[in-house]
Amino acid sequence: MREAHPLPQAKGDTGTDKDISLIGHVQVSLAAQVGTVTMSVERLFGLKSGDVISMNELLDAPLTLMLNGRAVATAELLAVDDHFGVRILELA
């Protein structure tokens, strides 16, 4: 069994200060979760175009940023030109 060695340290302004040169090119999926709702399967299958689903979160509640399905930060929703954007509030 090989012994694990820590990655060499590199100075940066991310707070993690790790050398990511070996994996920096790897693509990951970052998603912004707006809210959640619990519903029955019967309600789910009864949904049709135009139905409104009320979420549990308030309009100004922070979003949860999910990295490959895992919560990694909270953020607030912004408008960036004609697109949505997020401002990081706290890293997990």
Distance between the termini: 32 Å
Order of helices and strands: EHEEE
Gyration radius, in Å: 19 Å
CATH architecture of one domain: Roll
Sheet with most strands: strand arrangement: 1-2-3-4
* Number of DSSP helical runs: 1
- The protein's oligomeric status is single chain
Q: Whole-number average pLDDT? A: 85
Characterize the overall form. Answer: elongated
Strand content: 25-35%
Extended strand count: 4
* Residue windows where pLDDT falls under 50 for at least 5 positions: 1-11
Measured as a percent range, the helix fraction is under 10%
CATH topology of one domain: Surface presentation of antigens (SPOA)
CATH top level class name of one domain:
Mainly Beta
Secondary-structure-based class equals mainly beta
- Please, what is the CATH homologous superfamily of one domain? SpoA-like
Largest β sheet strand count, sense and barrel closure: 4 strands, antiparallel
Protein name: Flagellar motor switch protein FliN
Family: Belongs to the FliN/MopA/SpaO family.
Membrane topology: Peripheral membrane protein
Organism: Marilutibacter alkalisoli
Structural topology:
Elements: E1 30-33, H1 41-46, E2 63-67, E3 70-80, E4 83-91
Antiparallel strand pairs: 1-2, 2-3, 3-4
Question: Care to describe what's here?
Answer:
- This protein is mostly beta strands and 92 residues long.
- The chain has a domain of 62 residues: Roll (Surface presentation of antigens (SPOA)).
- 7% of the residues lie in helices and 32% in strands.
- Strand 3 and strand 4 form a beta hairpin.
- The longest helix is centred in the middle third of the chain and has 6 residues.
- The chain is elongated, with a radius of gyration of 19 Å.
- The chain starts with 29 loop residues before the first strand and ends with a strand.
